[in-house]
Amino acid sequence: MLFASIDIGSNAVRLYFANVFEIDGIPKAEKASLIRIPLRLGEDVFNTGSISEQRVYNLLKTMNAFKLLIDVYKPVDYIACATSAMREASNNKAIIESIRNASGIDVRVIDGIEEARILCASNNILIEKKYHVAMYIDVGGGSTEISVIKDGVLLASNSFQLGTIRILSAKAHAEEWENLKTWLDQFKNDFGKIYLIGSGGNINKLSKLYSTQPDSSLSYHHLKKGLKELSSLTLQERITDMGMRPDRADVIIPAAEIFIYIMKNTKTDYVFVPRIGLGDGLIYTVYKRYKERGNVNEEE
Fold it and tell me: Bridge partners of 26?
């Protein structure tokens, strides 16, 4: 069955279609289509506190286009959520209302903790038996969400105002880095034994460029080496020589810095990169909602 999710992030807005099916009672999602529009709402919010008229206009046009695609694809259900930039924008209520009036899409602004937990909804990853603790890390434009699972049980989730656009805008405070370190310290008994799982477009790209492992995991050593190489290049060189999109070429640097900081402080040698993101978690969330309503035949 086809489901869809809309993720209004600080860097980009994404419409994701995925087919969901069950194997032995466990839902699996298979990507059907992904449309990504780099609106960069966070550039406005983290500098001025609100989203500008031009970006609101672009967002409304994008949401109208997304609704037309949803009408054509006809998913059985869909969900739309907004994250860091929208929840911090002083004009967010007016924007959400404008989206509803223009496209008929109801957008829910979720807080950082819920965002972290939604990411964990896609927890179908086989974790090696030697690891008891898994740490999911999603680095976005406005924030970094982390969830910790032990023996299949969610232990803790948190959100930190350390995102790529926020860092590029010089709006990430030193205290927040300390807050992150302090929060991570509660798991120090497991340091060196944590199965780190990274999500988001930047870690996906870093893995593609620098991973030497067959499972796409990326070592701390190779990630640091990659950051050094990318930092030595100009923005234009990252675009022309490394084949990056313009909206990826700048944010990939702070994203690497965040992952390196977490890996260093948790004494982790590798981060596993399964190519998942908030959109995947939203797909599982809407599928669960659909199933709870009794719409799914258990034999499917």
Answer: 23
- pTM for the predicted model, two decimal places: 0.88
Residue 123 is predicted with a pLDDT of: 56
Of 111, 184, 102, the C-alpha closest to 147 is 184
CB 96 within 8 A of CB 85: no
C-alpha to C-alpha distance for 175 and 200, rounded to whole angstroms: 24
Q: Which residues of 232-261 are buried (b: 16+ CB within 10 A; e: fewer)?
A: ebeeeebbeeeebeebbbbbbbbbbbbbbb
> What does the radius of gyration of the chain's CA atoms come to, in whole angstroms?
19
For the segment 77-129, what is each residue's pLDDT rounded down to a tens digit? 999 999 999 999 999 999 999 999 999 999 999 998 888 888 776 655 555 55
Per the CB < 8 A criterion, the answer to whether 17 and 3 are in contact is: yes
